[in-house]
Amino acid sequence: MVGQLLKYLLSCNSTADDNPAFEILEIMGCELTSQKTIYPNVLPQNYGTPAIVYTITGNEPSKVKETKAIATTIEFELDIVAENYSVVNSLVNLIIPYLHRYKNTYNSANQTNIGFGMPPTSFGKFGPASTGPIQYVAGFQIIDCFFISSVENFDAKLELFRNTLNFKLTYIKDITQFEPEFILKLDDLNLMSTIVNSTDNPLYTQPIAINQSVNAIFCPNLFPTINDTLDGTFPLFLDTSGTSGTNRPLLIKSVLNPPKYNELNALKFEAGKFLTGNSFLQTRKLKEYTFFAVFNLTDSKSQTQGAAFLHAQISNSVATTIYASTENSGGVGGFSYYRIKGTVMNSTSYEGFEIMSVASWPLLGINTDASFDDPVFIAFSLEKSNDSLIMGEFKMIMSSYPTSIQNLGDTGINQTWTRAVANGFDSEHLFVYDTIHTDIPSFDPKFGNTTPLNDEITIYDMVLFNEKIDFGTSKFEYIKRNIIEKHGMLNLVE
Amino acid sequence: MIGKAIYTLLKNKVSDLATGGIYPVVIPHNPNGSNNFPAVIYTTSIETLDSKDEEINIFKASVEIQVVAETYDSANNLSRKIKDVLDHYIDRERKEYLDPIFIEGFKTKDGYSHNYVSNINIDNVFFQDNDDDYFDDLQLFSITTLYDVYFYNNINKFCFDKGGLISNPLALSVDATQITSDDKGGLISTSASVQLNPSNTATTNVWLNTNGNFKGKETATSSVSEFNRLLAIGSIKYINNTTPAYLKFGELTPFDCYIISNLSGTLTTLSIEYGALFILIYKPTTVGQNLILGDFDTASPYDNSSIYLAHSKVGSDITIKFNPRGYFDNFSSETQTLITSTDSTNYWDADVHFMALSVGGNKANTGGTKNQKGWFEYFNSNLNPKLTTGQIQNDNSFAGNGNTYSKSCTFAGVGGWGNITGSTGFNMHELLVFVPEGKTKRNDVDSAPFQPTDIIYNELKNYIYNKYKNLK
């Protein structure tokens, strides 16, 4: 992975005129060819020079208590090899300033292919413009890269001049290391853009400020490989209404009132607001998935409502979704249901399922404090057992202190769910998504009553993996902890 | 980088090596027949010094110089001569402009030493160690000496020498901001024949190119020749009682310009038929027309085909524009307006202004359909929107023109001939001129050879931000 990053930095895998590495490639004579003379570890025989050989020489994780490293520092060497000493020197004169305290200053002017970052390529395509201290390149979040030293040499066997450059590169190790489909990173305002004035270009009004509307949000990861056209592309969600800003949510910051509210950024999708994913996102079909989110629904105790986290209206008769819903009997102390549900597609239509349902009836003292009013953490996995059965695990933590709800909270106990429908799950791929939230007011969930999906929802965190992650594994626990710790939900258990 | 400076120093300062015998890293097999030795082989390694700045200001190079000779006495003798030159290297020798390489060095008020060797600016050199050896199989004596060389990591590193004929990409680097410890302009001269640094308010005649002499073509049809390491003919006041120090244009006519000259001392032009990038650090001071880039042509039709760039204020109307063929009045159809505004605070009053103007070549030379397609970036100490590269491409690009020129575009210098096309008043801090080695290799042959996404441009902005703090 890191090697892929180094090759990407040096070439951008591009033949575009505005390739940031153009000058390097021009000297190497491969600026207009897809084959770049940049190699890992060893110079191939008979491939010609000038060439660059990159070698990772050290890997030092940042040591932190109890959990995985939050950052890693690698040392790497670049061997600049050429037959001519002055060519080596010219390359060195470009590469040192390029990589030392690296800044990804590139920003696309291409408004038809919405996207920022390096020129369009298959790998690392449409990266965010790095307008802040973190450089988002090729799925890496680079904190720093700096030049240490260089040493000249002559390879007597190959009769080539060589200059070996030593660098150190530090990058963030967070949930992105597990290659999610996408992850929303709302604490970096540089990953969001807005339109303030009607003439503003949403490509450029970055970073955003708190209480501004979000026209686009960029993810720090790359779509993992599933043999789809979007493999290796940065996920992006944007308001396709353009300058009107009709669909965009609001970026808010919660007040500092722990333990429920911890001054964290969130996307507030008012009723009917939504953001649309990359073009062709609907072609990206998942066989299984694991979903994590922290959210709240306004007035969930008193109103019957439903709000989608993710949704795709594939056709008039087929829709896949993940949503939260509430049902209320009304009146003081009446009963309520708090549910996490979804749908998956099958060969002819789609089928609904329910992950979890929490009942509350304050009048009778049942789960009195339960609600979706305050931030709620949910995680669940979904896989197909056979054409008639889907199943998975789930966990929910309510920050509204579910003292009477057994096994909810960060207990270490994970629960399972199943949904059986004869031939209800007979397609290979089950799930598609292309919007965060939706404007659909009435939806047949194929499991329970018709529900709206467009009610207001506030999303603090959201991560989707295109695999079923086993709950309780170190991978799951790391992801869970990474999300809930900042919400004060760690060990929130009674 | 530093290897080029070491080579240049040894070749020019050690008489025994004037005809060669200096090799980087390895000595070629039998390079001079029976006259191979003594020979000098140099190897460099570079490391960074701690710096709070984004840009490393000073590099430290460990330079190993190995003298190989058939007798110990010969090796020792040459090694000692090299040490005499390099250890605690200082160059304060008064220079005549015939010297193609060296500029008289100086120490700045903050104590840093500057010694110019071609495009490399050396702070200091310290002898560290030496080691004798004998190669039994070759029957050669060897003395290897180690030096620590501290040199400035400035923008001049982009004056590459890849064996090409044109000095590129950075051909010209003139800087009025360097003040010596005795309060003089370090890179400017009051004499047209020998380097005499000016005091505050002195009238200057020469603005030195810190790259030394450089090679280029005077016009698109001429052959490659060597240019003098200076801009000449000016009668421009030097001011350093406020910093950054500057040259004050627009006061002393008619010699209100600094112009490129060839080795014969004749004022001339530098062909930019394949395009160029100009970096200008300046401040307009007096209402009226200011020719930041201009020409020395004194009579109609002013047809040197030199690029003009003006930052003017007439009434409250502020305009920044350029013309790739000559003076605006004579070639109005080619005038490209970059900025118009009536906002004096943001487009006139600022203390320091930055303009990057990048133009493509002439269609007759590139084979394209447009002349001088390009882009610009402008900001100043009052207005700095920190445009991204996409914004520059999207908002600050111009398509060029499709006209047919009688001559391809050239660059002449700063300012204009005072009596006819002079300036009302502006201060000039620094000028950098980048030219490509040849026709752009980008897919679009009309495009400017230097783009805002380039490493060089990003590094250049880092250099500017580090140097002119109120532009950051």
Highest-level CATH class of the largest domain in chain B: Mainly Beta
Number of domains of chain A: 2
Task: State the CATH topology of the largest domain in chain B.
Answer: Jelly Rolls
How are the strands ordered across the major sheet of chain A?
A: 8-9-10-15-24-17-18-19-20
Span of the ends, CA to CA of chain B:
27 Å
**What is the class of the largest domain in chain A in the CATH system?**
Mainly Beta
Low-pLDDT segments of chain B: none
List the chains of the largest interface with their residue counts: A-B, 52 and 41 residues
Number of strands of chain A: 25
Round the mean pLDDT of chain A to the nearest integer and report it: 89
Q: Which second-level CATH architecture of the largest domain in chain A applies?
A: Sandwich
CATH architecture heading of the largest domain in chain B: Sandwich
Could you describe the 3D structure shown?
The complex is a heterodimer of chains A (494) and B (472). Chain A is mainly beta and 494 residues long. Chain A has 2 domains: 2-173, 2-Layer Sandwich (STM4215-like), CATH 3.30.2000; 177-487, Jelly Rolls (Sandwich), CATH 2.60.120. In chain A, 9% of the residues lie in helices and 35% in strands. Chain A is built from 4 helices and 25 strands. In chain B, 12% of the residues lie in helices and 38% in strands. Chain B contains 7 helices and 27 strands. The mean pLDDT of chain B is 90. In chain B, the strands form 3 sheets. Chain B has an 18-stranded antiparallel beta sheet that branches. Chain B has 472 residues and is mostly beta strands. Chain B has 2 domains: 2-152, STM4215-like; 158-471, Jelly Rolls (Sandwich), CATH 2.60.120. At the A-B interface, helix 2, helix 3 and strand 5 of A face strand 2, helix 5 and helix 7 of B.
